[in-house]
Design goal:
The chain is α+β, with helices and mostly antiparallel strands. The protein is 32% helix and 19% strand. Among the domains are: 127 residues, 2-Layer Sandwich (Alpha-Beta Plaits); 132 residues, Alpha-Beta Plaits (2-Layer Sandwich), CATH 3.30.70.660. It has eleven helices and 15 strands. Strands 1, 2, 4, 5, 6, 7, 8, 9, 10 and 11 form a ten-stranded mixed sheet that branches. One of its GO terms (biological process) is tRNA pseudouridine synthesis. This is Pseudouridylate synthase 3. GO terms for molecular function: pseudouridine synthase activity; RNA binding.
Length: 479
Amino acid sequence: MADVLTDRINELEAEVEKLKSQLREKTRAGEVMDVTSSSSSRDNTDCSPEENGTTSSKKKGKKVNKDRPLDFSAYPRRHVALRLAYLGWNYQGFAVQENTENTVEARLFEALQKTRLIQSRQSSNYHRCGRTDKGVSAFSQVISIDLRSNQFSKGLGITLPENVDVNIKNKAVVSEFPYVKMLNRVLPHDIRILDWAPVAQDFSARFDCQSRTYRYYFPRGSLDVKLMADAAKRYEGTHDFRNLCKMDVGNGVLQFERTILSVSIQPAWSTQTSTSESHDLFIFEIKGLAFLYHQVRCMMAVLLLIGQKLESPEIIDQLLDVQTNPRKPQYSMAVDFPLILYDCHFDGLTWKQEPEEVNYILVTLQQHWTQSAVKSHLLLGMITALEAKGATSTGQCLLVEGSRCKNYRPLLQRPFCESLESRIDHFVKRGRLEREESQNGGEMIHRGKRSKHSHNSPNPTISSDENFSKAKTEEKAED
């Protein structure tokens, strides 16, 4: 038995050696093939892409062409107005900021440069209608800007390049670049271009805006909405709103008179669909020529106090009386996310829509709405179930920043913020503002050399005289 096993082991060992020998031969043959193949490949690389016919070379060539710099001087420029909508909840505001890239404007300029519609922001003749704050959305924000065009014939807003060939200049008219489609394909899903309009070269989205309309959405809760609506009418007219805004003195804003054209509080829908009146939504809508920094949110905060019957409607008149109350009492603003820049009105503009894009934008908004509506009703179902079990709400308004004190202190009995004069002195000492004597003996104040705006614009002169042009107070909308 042992001899049989020994013979079998010897046979297996011989078989293993035979297999090893065959494997070594195959390995040597494979190395020769690899060397030959490698040599052949190197020889082929000396040929042109057309000769070797490799797909990778063609793809590489296309990439090089795509990255080739564009000669903007060979194209016409067109001054246009762009109207855009955005959900501002995930952004740090509309305007570009030094300390963050997470702004709507930063994303917009990324898209403009990616589509090669502009060469740079500095050369684009750019103006914005308003600069919404962190968390604030817009349905009708408007900017004016010079975009690359394909129109070599005359047209509104067209600037032809120098030394244009006459034959090219007079060639048949073609359709303008599809600006809306081009930008929407590269913008984030919560920023959308709605339409565009050709405008004259001197048009400015900031200075030519006729009016701006904001909306602030809020639930009824335990608020007296009728009392709020009656009180809101006191905002209408031209008033000094220094006690109903954040004074932006450091940036040269010293005039606080603003004109409010209309104010209203209405149900969000013609037929409210919630199961309880406390969950019905309302809209505070305000239309004005221009707005101060945080003005709408401060105005809404006071209305919420009135709706809770913590303040009387007369508090609005008292805050607007800056002779009697020259300093703003300390109070928290209304939160940011329910606020939207709903409309910016311009006279004489012909907005051009791209039908396919309108449907595309509608689908995008429906996706956002579907998710938000489902979440909203899911939460409402939970609230209703808890109320059915006997749970009771405190009735506290949840739309004001900060925590609520247990014992309410009336506005005019609170500590006050610094006066306008004190703020001016503060920024003069820091070099942000400078004082000069005017020709009529009054005082002129302008931005100083240390102003953060002094590097990109001439120092505007700001007069503290009463005869200062009211037009300067209507320059911008900020909230």
